[in-house]
Protein: Cytochrome B
Amino acid sequence: MTAETHSKPASAAGPVRYTTVAIILHWLIAAALIFQVILGWRADDGPKGAETFALFQLHKSIGITILVLSVARLLWKFTHKSPPAPAGQPTWEKLAASAVHVGFYVIMIGLPLTGWIIASTSRINIPTVLYGAIPWPHIPGLPELAAGAKDAWNDFGHIGHSVLVKFTYVLLALHLGAVAKHQILDRDEVFGHMAAGAKPGLKEPRLWLAAAGFAAVVAAGYLYTPAKAKAPQPAPAESSADDLALPDETPAAAAPVATTAGPAPQATPAESTEAPVDSALKDPVAWAVQKGSHLDFDLAWADTPIHGTFSRWTADILFSPEALDRSKLTVSVDLASAGTGDGQRDESLQGPDFFNTASSPKAIFTATKFRKTAEGRFVADGTLDLRGVKKPLSLPFSLKIDGDTAKARGVTTLDRTAFGVGQGEWASTDQIPGKIKVSFALTAKKK
Ligand code: HEM
Ligand code: HEM
Structure:
């Protein structure tokens, strides 16, 4: 195959420079790779907040781009002629140059592959969306592996990635050293192979352009701040009234709750006269939870929201707004029924690092104290027993009783760390914030 027509003049020995496509790919990949190394340093060292998460998203995006460009460049290289080594170059130099170039292809493809392995075997399954727009799959087969094999692959990815990163530094030093030697000492045409029209010597403007470009890319790597880096959305410290609005509330019922501060009035018999008293509710009533009721949890992994649902739970409810002092509530949640839409993640949730369902399969919330905070709004003060730890928990909820049917909705936040949900590396709130939002919406009928 001959060189491209515009990479003339092709002497008998071969073209005087790389083809235009090869040159564009070389500089594009070189810039991307140097920027990528700086991003990698920043992301690896940074505090594990939203900014670091955004840096990693870009790191993954650029890394995959480098992979695609490098594969294209390799295919191009196999099908197009490269310029020959300068006449009289010693064999060891030719071999060294080839070795460095082969080494570069190893890291240009190996770094993204090992990075992709890390991303595909993360315990917390974070999707890769290139540049926030193009969904990129995990490596097929890896996310489905059993936890042990998955961890082994993850370790391999980490070790491979960091070894290749070190290899990159060596290659780059050799490569730049060689360019300098050819340009300044040997004063041959090698720089001109990759910078069309360049003459040997330090006066060559393209050399300074390359050096300035190098410095600019390093600076850009440090200066880049992710536009969308906002603090992870903290779960609300207190449930807001809006969170508690019933879906089918009438406009009157949805009117803002009286915001008077201070202790909420208790539902005393005297007070209860202001609302029509349902004589059937003078005593606590047993309620049976109906189908369609749900118990959910929400958390954030930096910018990635994770929504989960418990599909199996039961509630023993003995409740009447007119007999709060005698009302009782016990909710029993089968922790193994936690689903977040990702089989591997759900398996991890049940494991010893999180719920540890093998030794404490259920979370139990018991409340024997209820307060009325406003019309149709109550707080159940009780105890949550989760993962063998008992802590007080107040659950605010809104309630609407219509004949035999009651609809209740509530939301609260839990500090998972108080219950030991998240052990080892997950104990810190760097990656998964401590606050977890728990919400429910239920319909119950009088038994
Ligand atoms: C991380 C950044 C870089 C990578 C990965 C890289 C990679 C490569 C590779 C693989 C080749 C062989 C030609 C090919 O296969 O297309 C090459 C050639 C070349 N590179 Fe780089 N390069 C980088 C940065 C630079 C920089 C910053 C300069 C100049 C200051 C430079 C100058 C050259 C020159 C002059 C050649 C031609 C060598 C020859 O014909 O023997 N490279 N580079
Ligand atoms: C040519 C492409 C790439 C380069 C040059 C590169 C470079 C780096 C560098 C310099 C670090 C800092 C770690 C250290 O100093 O040891 C790093 C870390 C990391 N990179 Fe990349 N990377 C590339 C591609 C990717 C891709 C495609 C992904 C994921 C899809 C990825 C994921 C990661 C992760 C997860 C870390 C943290 C490493 C750890 O904790 O061991 N990288 N990368």
Observations:
- Helices lie at 20-45, 50-79, 91-120, 147-186, 190-194, 205-223, 251-254, 343-350.
